[in-house]
Design brief:
The protein is α/β, with parallel strands linked by helices and 170 residues long. It has one domain: 3-Layer(aba) Sandwich (Rossmann fold). The protein has a six-stranded parallel beta sheet, sandwiched between helices. It is globular and about 45 Å long. The two termini are 26 Å apart. The mean pLDDT is 95. It binds magnesium ion (MG). The site of magnesium ion has 7 residues, from loops.
């Protein structure tokens, strides 16, 4: 199993319906913190809602799987009411399986979108689903987060090296 993300994007907004359709994706599992909103915010911004709406209109199923706690996720999801799973302990993938069950999707047509390789990407890859990585919106500066980012670096570098190789072939 590789921890290499299938694609790295600049923001969630770059992940368009057209792209998802071209990849055969019919359902997405979204991380919340630093993927859709920074840690300090509690509500989805209008831009997040607008992006989510484009997915809804295209009949792409949506769910949230976060390692954060119940109250945080419930508040974020209170007007959206998507299948939502808190305290997920990603990279464990149990809640991603539950999310797929709730959406009626399979690893073949589900993508997971998150900002951390060692939680989000890993959990998704474990189940054999497409995993798209985003840079964190606003990272915490504590030593643990910094260490995680440091460990992610070689994998991100490998991704860009592979992409470059691919481009040269084309
Ligand atoms: Mg996150």
């Amino acid at each position: 199993m590789s921890l290499l993300p299938d694609r790295i994007f600049g923001t969630y907004q770059e992940i368009t319906v057209d792209f998802l359709k071209s990849e055969g994706i019919e359902a997405v599992i979204l991380d919340v913190d630093n993927t859709l909103i920074p840690y300090e915010e509690i509500e989805p911004r209008p831009a997040v809602l607008a992006w989510i709406n484009t997915l809804i209109e295209a009949n792409i199923a949506i769910s949230f799987v976060t390692n954060n706690h119940k109250h945080r996720l419930q508040y974020f999801n209170r007007n959206l009411n998507f299948p939502a799973f808190h305290d997920s302990w990603k990279p464990f993938s149990r809640n991603m399986k539950r999310a797929m069950r709730a959406m009626g999707s399979t690893p073949e047509n589900t993508a997971n979108i998150g900002d951390q390789i060692f939680t989000d990407t890993w959990a998704g890859k474990r189940l054999g689903m497409k995993s798209y990585l985003l840079p964190p919106i606003r990272d915490k500066r504590d030593p643990f987060t910094r260490l995680k980012r440091l460990l992610e670096k070689p994998i991100v570098r490998r991704y860009y090296a592979a992409q470059k190789e691919q481009e040269q072939k084309e």
